[in-house]
Write a structure and sequence with these properties.
21 helices; five-stranded antiparallel sheet; Heat Shock Protein 90; about 575 residues
């Protein structure tokens, strides 16, 4: 999880970096009114991200399941369907935003005569980048499946450079004001998309685009699975509109500028839990596809025990640096917008710490088909908690009400998760399985499997006896118990001989033995170079009988063997 995390954090930070660059040039080169235009457009941008998240969430979970089941046809079909629907959605939203801006139909966003023209200019420029915004998120998810996250890192680096140069050119030199702010980010998004998509267009990817007509059920599944997660952003669109209206009524347009600045800066740090969610969502779906009960719970444990402390440190640093961070955008401490922004950076950092658990649980519930609960959680998380708390507090404490309301939202969301688990179990959850409400019938119970990690040839030699003894203790007959031990030792030794020696890195082979329903299942994972034993088995057919005799022997005694390379891991599943 930590190896996959950096790429996802960078990906999630991409659009935020765009907003921060725009915020910097807006506040320093155009004025506070331009910053207000950026903030007013925020709910629309959130909505487009919600639609993108709908497709990303649905396709990522379906692809994870098909990877777990090694169903290549459905994997390619989901990839193609996702790209087609995403492109059509991008075209539709581009037309709508252009019409709103060109014909000055933006009165539902603001009636401020000084800000509205800037908002219309900004929306025209942003409309050019809606299609790449939606598609780039899809391609990033598929690059994750391809284990080519470095392409995303390259795309981000290029994007940041292009965005900075174009903002300086369009805003600082050509004085295109709000239109220049948006145009720079839109052109940058097209460059970002081009770098990502090249891997797939050039034919260097495992995923293949097909125009084969998808099954109607596949479209429904993609939308049904992705909808609950997307609704978080969808609800936040309405929440953003409501909050903007409250801030305008009680504090003024300057409050929107302050909140937009603090929120955009915090979005950069929200990329950390968002990246954690992206990694967790894919691994949740793979664990569900493999019916791996232990790994399913372990992903959640990492979120709580490892990810949360990391986020606590990051949040503490933001709070300490609240004033220096604010000074990047606003230079005058006596300006009301300055202290409004400072307080945002002192209170909002508490939210990501609380949000990690909620985001991980939402991803798990989404992948596990607990859609009703996800809907309830996202309604509270997206709209009710923040909007209601802001409306109640703003007459008394003004601007800080929106910041405190976001913290209250995180606490309420965690309470909802605990209440749900308590209701479903009939008592307060006592372990991770009960907190996640994993059905008793799912996967192998603790007494039905054993796990062994092998790091050298000496440990590999003893694995055969270990597997045999475990199989016999679970009532498996002697012949299949012997075959299970033989297969485990042969494949592990093969990995050590051919994989451990390819580089100077430390490697391990993880063996999971499951005895359930009178069946022996071996799952062997290693982090060495890709190696498909099935290809080696076919290559040696008809040649020297002694060549690769171990692999050929295992294929002759096994009921079924499946291989896949998953997130840079070789995963071999043998049924005996």
């Amino acid at each position: 999880m930590f190896r996959l995390l950096p790429v996802q954090i960078i990906l999630m930070a991409t659009s935020t970096i765009n907003m921060l660059v725009s915020s910097y040039f807006a506040s320093n080169f155009v004025g506070t009114e331009a910053m207000g235009a950026v903030g007013l457009y925020g709910p629309l941008n959130t909505f487009f991200c919600a639609v993108s998240q709908l497709f990303v969430g649905g396709s990522a979970i379906l692809c994870g399941e098909y990877l777990g089941k090694n169903d290549q046809e459905k994997l390619h079909g989901t990839y193609s369907l996702d790209l087609i629907i995403s492109t059509l959605a991008g075209i539709l939203f581009t037309v709508i935003v252009l019409l709103l801006a060109v014909f000055d139909l933006t009165g539902f966003l603001t009636s401020d005569a000084a800000v509205r023209p800037l908002l219309n200019q900004y929306m025209i420029g942003q409309s050019i980048g809606i299609i790449p915004l939606i598609l780039s998120n899809q391609y990033a998810s598929f690059l994750f499946v391809e284990n080519k996250g470095r392409i995303t890192q390259l795309a981000v680096a290029v994007y940041i450079a292009v965005n900075l140069v174009l903002n300086y050119l369009f805003v600082g030199v050509m004085n295109l004001q709000a239109f220049g702010l948006a145009l720079a980010s839109s052109v940058g998004m097209w460059v970002f998309l081009t770098v990502e998509a090249w891997v797939f267009v050039s034919g260097r990817s495992q995923l293949r685009f097909t125009l084969k007509k998808p099954a109607p059920g596949e479209i429904r599944s993609l939308i049904r699975i992705g909808l609950p997660g997307a609704l978080v952003n969808g609800y936040q669109t309405f929440r953003g509109l409501a909050v903007n209206a409250l801030l305008t009524a009680y504090v003024g347009t300057v409050a929107i500028s302050a909140f937009a600045t603090a929120n955009n800066l915090m979005s950069l740090f929200w990329a950390v839990p968002a990246g954690m969610q992206a990694v967790s969502r894919m691994l949740f779906s793979v664990s569900l596809g493999e019916e791996d009960r232990h790994s399913l719970a372990e992903v959640m444990r990492v979120n709580i025990r490892r990810y949360t402390p990391v986020m606590c440190v990051i949040s503490a640093l933001i709070i300490i640096c609240a004033q220096p961070l604010t000074h990047i955008f606003y230079k005058d401490p006596s300006d009301p917008v300055y202290m409004m922004t400072v307080w945002g950076l002192r209170i909002l950092p508490l939210c990501p710490v609380l949000g990690i658990i909620c985001m991980a649980y939402t991803s798990y519930a989404q992948a596990a088909g607990k859609q009703r609960f996800v809907h309830i959680l996202t309604i509270f998380d997206g709209v009710i908690s923040v909007s209601a708390a802001t409306a109640i507090l703003i007459p008394f404490i003004g601007m800080n009400s929106i910041y405190i309301a976001n913290v209250i939202n995180g606490i309420v969301s965690i309470l909802i998760i605990i209440i749900y688990a308590t209701k479903m179990n009939g008592h307060f959850p006592r372990n991770m399985d009960e907190l996640m409400v994993i059905p008793d019938s799912f996967g192998a119970c603790e007494d039905e499997y054993t796990e062994i990690s092998v790091r050298n040839i000496d440990e590999a030699v003893s694995i055969s006896l270990h597997v045999q003894e475990f199989c016999l203790s679970k009532g498996i007959d002697r012949r299949r118990s012997y075959y299970g031990g033989l297969a485990a030792e042969e494949m592990v030794v093969n990995v050590i001989d051919h994989g451990f020696t390819k580089d100077k890195k430390d490697h391990s082979v993880d063996v999971r033995v499951v005895c359930k329903d009178d069946e022996v299942i071996l799952r062997i994972k290693d982090d060495c170079v890709p190696f498909n034993p099935e290809e080696r088995n076919h290559l040696t057919e008809g040649v020297d009988e002694a060549s690769n005799i171990g692999i050929r022997m295992i294929y002759s005694i096994a009921k079924n063997i499946k291989y896949q390379n998953l997130f840079g891991l070789n995963v071999l599943t043998i049924r005996i």
